[in-house]
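Supplementary Methods, section 5.1.

A reviewer requested that the exact input to the structure prediction be made available. We therefore reproduce it here, unchanged from the version used in the analyses.
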Amino acid sequence: MASNFNFDAQREQSAVKTEIVTKYFSAWVKVLKNKNNKLGYIDLFSGPGVYKDGAKSTPIIILENILSDNYMRDHIVTWFNEKDRDLYNELVENIKNIRDIEKLKYKPIIKNDAVDYDTPKWFAKRELIPCFSFIDPAGYMGLSLNLLKALGKDYGSDIIFFFNFNDINRGITNDKVTSHMEQVFGKSSYSALLKKIKRSPGDRETIIINEMAVALKREGMKFVLPFRFKLEGKNRTSHYLIFASKKFLGYKIMKEIMHKAGEKDYEGVGKFEFIPSCDKEKGIQLSIIDLFNSSLDELKEHLLNMYRGKSGTLERLYEVDAGDNRFLIRHYKKIILELEEEERVLCIPPRNERRPYKGKPSLNEKTVKIKFL
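The structure derived from this sequence is encoded token-by-token as follows.
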């Protein structure tokens, strides 16, 4: 078997990964469906679709979700690929056995190709319909910045990919796989990465993830959001799911989904990481780093310092400020209401002229004007 991934039984981490991907796909379709006659879903490392214990994985759940919706049945094109011949045959059979699969307007495209460093060329020279792409290799072979760039280049196209931190971390300074690391990060980002790690070896994980984000942003995917998974039974990172989009709306939606799926801190704010339940019971925590480690109090001081004398709506404030932190718009709203009560911001109309919500002051995201004093 070409893949080293175990498809015997679905692990807790895999279920969370599937939940994040499928929830975003449904939300993404809702945003784009009124402006497009055809949308696409691409999965280049599909696996068999069903684990040996009977649990369904992402390809089957995506297709079942499409079949459950009138719009999606007639407007979604799906592309699945699995290079391992045995897994491919299982995938074909499992898709064939989906109830009412024949009702899809567009029959699923199922390929049995290797994804290599030439694959991006095929996508790069074509203008794609809006596509949501899921890139989920077992290791890092086939994953490249060029592939992510090619899949995310066109209008409406977002990507989410499996970033095998455990393997990539080992490969960063291994001369035997330098060419592969250059493919993953791009040559310039990989070179910068090595220099930064040499200067600050204690910040290695943060540097690696941030440099991946920088590389994606350089290619036009301005909004990048990582979600971390713990290595079961050990206090270190296994892998990340990394989301990338050209549009803030996609980032905003995915932030809500990942926030709900992951751990929360003592303030109830998402940490954008998942710890298996067996390790939570043992008291094992993922504490090596926290990519989003600021508190609500620190966010409050940041807003006061950054926007002193400036005005705008909450919606606009969130869009320009929230691209690199873990906070949701509800956290910004909480802080602005506190600052208004402390008379450190001026809201127009003031709270006594705004209709309360559930007995508490309200703050319309689009209409209330906020001025930082």
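The chain has a mean pLDDT of 90. These observations are discussed further in the main text.
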